[in-house]
């Protein structure tokens, strides 16, 4: 199954392949699609071979289905996602490469950096729950990525293990920006900057998102706490209470917090509790969490070395 099509769509909302810096357009190289490596609400992700350089990339394919009005709306939101992606440059953010829209495939293909280690969810399924030092290694990098995103005015809105990729060297890459939103400021009281749409995955969703009461960067911090629970238990938050989405949403909107992992250190418990404060204005920023005592005490090895982390399991 491959794609080397270059015939552009005539949709009223075109998606241009540009360099992201206002200069010359980028020519999309010839490429061939490979195996399916991921699937979610915002499209399917495949391996992809650049036939001109021999490099491996990942390609996110989004089908354009429905009425012309529905397709117009879909392309509009894709343009917003691509605009955000092409201007992001950080070691903990998956790198955007190209976009191609064609009539033959009736969809949009977004080429991204290929992260060979797969998702954190894949690692949890394969190796089981992480110990605290391993969780620190990963969450520290998640926070670095979020600190950068928030500095760019972007709230991710769907932080979870399935959207956190891991390289073979243990470097974390935040991915899947289909639910992301660019804000004008970080002031959560500014009505113009409050996202009110229901975006994200229920088990990791902050109360203010579930209630549609408006949310900002603090929503990502709630999800950080949920990812900590996920890493330390091996299961999504709320799993010990209910796996029914309706039940979980009722718990979240009522102001309850997911159960904490058993047997964790006091510092770890405090870290998670600070992330999971129901009042979003009381949650620390990503930058503040990077200086949290829990991370400072546990980060005794190089963030860039997975080898040292593996020794924890020997």
TrEMBL record:
GO molecular function: ATP binding; metal ion binding; protein kinase activity
Species classification: Eukaryota, Sar, Alveolata, Ciliophora, Postciliodesmatophora
PANTHER family: MAP KINASE KINASE KINASE SSK2-RELATED-RELATED, MAPKK KINASE
Keywords: ATP-binding, Kinase, Magnesium, Metal-binding, Nucleotide-binding, Transferase
Location of the Protein kinase domain: 31-295
Protein name, entry field: Protein kinase domain-containing protein
InterPro entries: Kinase-like_dom_sf (IPR011009), MAP_kinase_kinase_kinase (IPR050538), Prot_kinase_dom (IPR000719), Ser-Thr/Tyr_kinase_cat_dom (IPR001245), Ser/Thr_kinase_AS (IPR008271)
Family matches, as SMART domains: S_TKc
Coiled coil: none
Catalytic residue list: 158
Binding site for Mg(2+): 163, 176
